[in-house]
Please model this.
Amino acid sequence: KKVLIVGGVAGGASTATRLRRLEENLEIIIFEKGEYVSFANCGLPYHIGEVIENRESLLVQTPESLKARFNLDVRVNSEVIGVNGEDKKVKVKTKNGEEYEENFDFLVLSPGAKPLFPPIKGIESERIFTLRNINDMDKIKAKIKNSNIKKATVVGGGYVGIETAENLKYLGIDTTLVEAAPHILAPFDSEISNVLEFELISNGINLLTSEKVIEFQENGNEINIKLESGKTVTTDIVILSIGVSPDTKFLQNSGITLGERGHILVNENLETNLKGVYALGDSILVKNYLTNQNVAIPLAGPANRQGRIVAGNIVGRNEKYKGSLGTAIIKIFELTAASTGFNERTLKQLNMSYEKIYLHPNNHAAYYPGASPISIKALYNKENKQILGAQALGISGVDKFIDVIATSINFKATIDDLSELELAYAPPFLSAKSPANMLGFIGQ
Ligand code: FAD
Model:
């Protein structure tokens, strides 16, 4: 049997390697339109800032290593330009313009999502960059180096935008961050994002919120960014980071059902409406783990876990994806901020009845040197007390806390259940009553 995989990074590569571990005899071909496979997308901003010094360390696998270790036929610079679901064939276009067809028994679609490029006047300027892959990163680095860039502006205050802004600042570049919404980082409620904004500003980022870009104007070696408020930001380069949309244009006449914004629709086995055609990662809509509604959650953890499930289903294991919570974390200079599940804004929109708890415990025993507070907001269902979400920020211990809550939500815990958790404690690591226990005590 022959399995074709479209996209050779997070979801595609994990499907392929899992598939090979499960089944020796399958023919597995990966098509990747870019030059690299299995690279660390999440590390890209940190190489721009030289925090990750070695570029090669971002290249987790190569076509050669995947061939040698997993017997995978990896074809880079090979774009799948069409899928014929009825005849079970894909059409591939290589970098030098050749086209050919390949037939399949199973097809796996993991084409990911591409940066949004809105129709703003002047958007085609060569001073505007986006960051999705190794080539994008190389271009940004080369521009910074070769053109002696002194001023940069990031448009979009989501995870990638903020990580990029921080890393540009590490290079000594005068960095502006423009966000159209009143606050950065939509997964957080405003009382949390306020603190994160303060962290950006106190580290020298020129932060402009509630400011919408309406035009880019080239101006010699600079570019003027016109804002709706009438202000203008003058900068050397722009990194546009206002979100992503599924990279699924090639599926338009395939017979595969797509959602309104182009996401691939799948069932709980991650199978599309065509039998034997699976999809995963940033290109699909998943179920929200708590409400079962369709949502787009473009994160690496879900993509990797979905890869295992797709591989399992191809070999007949009937594995199900139960949904995503959107658990995410970010470092902003000295701070860590993380969230899981719903925030209050979304609960209000969904008209759900909830209670909230604010808490500011220390990350570990106060008497042990180096203790620092974690600011926590937790939300739970007013009626059945099921935990619905949490947000936290602090210098240390935020990752551990949010993972405990994400795990608890995963097992459908109530706020009371948190009082029973027995977590690893010694003074350098936690308090005898952990932040999660404290939430339980308050909620009881
Ligand atoms: P991708 O990993 O993007 O892979 C899709 C691949 O398919 C691409 O290489 C593309 O070239 C290829 N492709 C598309 N169409 C075709 C076609 N027609 N033919 C052939 N090939 C095609 N997530 C986190 O959870 N934490 C993080 O810290 C984090 N940081 C990030 C930082 C950056 C800068 C970026 C860009 C993303 C980050 N993400 C992070 C998101 C994470 O990388 C994605 O959720 C994940 O890679 C999705 O996997 P995927 O397989 O769906 O798509």
